[in-house]
């Protein structure tokens, strides 16, 4: 049986992912980041590396929940496709506007073209089209093709270093100085949300669509089984091609998908079935708005030189804490502030959609 009920677990996981993004992205000091909130410097995996893949996985789940019933009922595909593309374009444009604001206020030397919202928009658009136009079997074949094809492309270069990998070479060629990192002397750049690595992110999102269909059918055991298989496959594959968030390697896709599936299983059992309070829901129902608002606040604080005095005030208020704990406290205060904004919007029934 397929359910059309709104799942509190999905809203909560989406919200917790956004809250974790804010926590990771807004430490009191980048020189004293609390160790568990640091990304792996290159190859490897940390808890912070799970946050963005979890969000994209939930994007895929949400596509299934919002469109799955209409697709199954035979609704016209063209209008659904058009709506998906328009929404995706709005997300991408918002990302570009936020980067323009950072470029201006923070006096950055170059404008960054790609980014988190841009990747979300691209993945939403392409995966929504796949959900609308492809059969279930074709979606699984596309998922396999993305993993195998992208892994083969990375392997073909014979170099997975930061400067030598194929994804960075392509980003350097196409994006040039609009990369996140750009070295004018060498003509090489690096973009964590780059073009070729989006293939891995698409696989993460597409697997979310398939998981959403299982969730709609109320089959938590299947979700858990999928999670276990993905974890095992990711661990095995990492022996041949390492996990790497910035390259979004196939091993990284499967490993993060495994944890995301298990979190979705647990959330479904605890929140949807046992109806425990959905912690994070307020963030989840205004996810993009909360992320964008927090971004603007952070950019303004850095641009007007308010961030350092704010952190120094906290350090003086908590002198006994070590520097990483002070940095974590600042990040937690930032998240709690935006959590309060999200709760207030939710209580007033204000939901800002992009």
TrEMBL record:
It comes from the Bacteria. Keywords: Acyltransferase, Membrane, Transferase, Transmembrane, Transmembrane helix. The keyword Transferase applies. The chain crosses the membrane at residues 12-30, 50-72, 84-105, 111-133, 140-158, 194-209, 221-240, 252-271, 283-304, 324-345. Residues 6-155 form the Heparan-alpha-glucosaminide N-acetyltransferase catalytic domain. The keyword Cell inner membrane does not apply. One of its GO terms (molecular function) is acyltransferase activity. InterPro entries: HGSNAT_cat, MFS_trans_sf. This is Acyltransferase family protein. It comes from Roseateles rivi.
């Amino acid at each position: 049986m397929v359910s059309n009920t709104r799942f509190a677990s999905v809203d909560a996981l989406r919200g917790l992912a956004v809250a974790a993004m804010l926590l990771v992205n807004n430490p009191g000091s980048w020189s004293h980041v609390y160790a568990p909130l640091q990304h792996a410097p290159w190859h490897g995996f940390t808890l912070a590396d799970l946050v963005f893949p979890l969000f994209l996985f939930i994007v895929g789940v949400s596509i299934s929940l919002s469109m799955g019933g209409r697709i199954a009922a035979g609704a016209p595909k063209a209008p659904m496709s058009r709506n998906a593309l328009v929404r995706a374009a709005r997300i991408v444009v918002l990302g570009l506007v936020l980067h323009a604001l950072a470029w201006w206020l923070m006096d950055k030397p170059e404008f960054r073209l790609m980014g988190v919202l841009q990747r979300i928009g691209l993945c939403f658009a392409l995966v929504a089209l796949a959900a609308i136009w492809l059969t279930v079997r074709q979606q699984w074949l596309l998922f396999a093709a993305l993993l195998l094809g992208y892994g083969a492309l990375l392997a073909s270069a014979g170099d997975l270093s930061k400067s030598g990998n194929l994804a960075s070479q392509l980003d350097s060629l196409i994006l040039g100085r609009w990369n996140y990192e750009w070295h004018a002397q060498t003509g090489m750049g690096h973009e964590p949300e780059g073009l070729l690595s989006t293939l891995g992110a698409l696989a993460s999102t597409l697997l979310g669509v398939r998981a959403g269909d299982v969730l709609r059918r109320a089959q938590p055991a299947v979700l858990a089984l999928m999670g276990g298989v993905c974890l095992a496959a990711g661990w095995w594959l990492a022996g041949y091609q390492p996990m790497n968030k910035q390259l979004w390697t196939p091993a990284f896709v499967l490993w993060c998908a495994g944890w995301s599936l298990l979190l979705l299983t647990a959330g479904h059992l605890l929140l949807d079935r046992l109806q425990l309070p959905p912690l994070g829901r307020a963030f989840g129902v205004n996810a993009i708005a909360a992320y964008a608002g927090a971004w603007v606040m952070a950019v303004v604080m850095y641009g007007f030189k308010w961030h350092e005095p704010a952190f120094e005030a906290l350090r003086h208020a908590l002198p006994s804490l070590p520097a990483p704990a002070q940095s974590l406290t600042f990040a937690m205060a930032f998240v709690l502030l935006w959590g309060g904004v999200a709760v207030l919007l939710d209580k007033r029934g204000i939901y800002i959609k992009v």
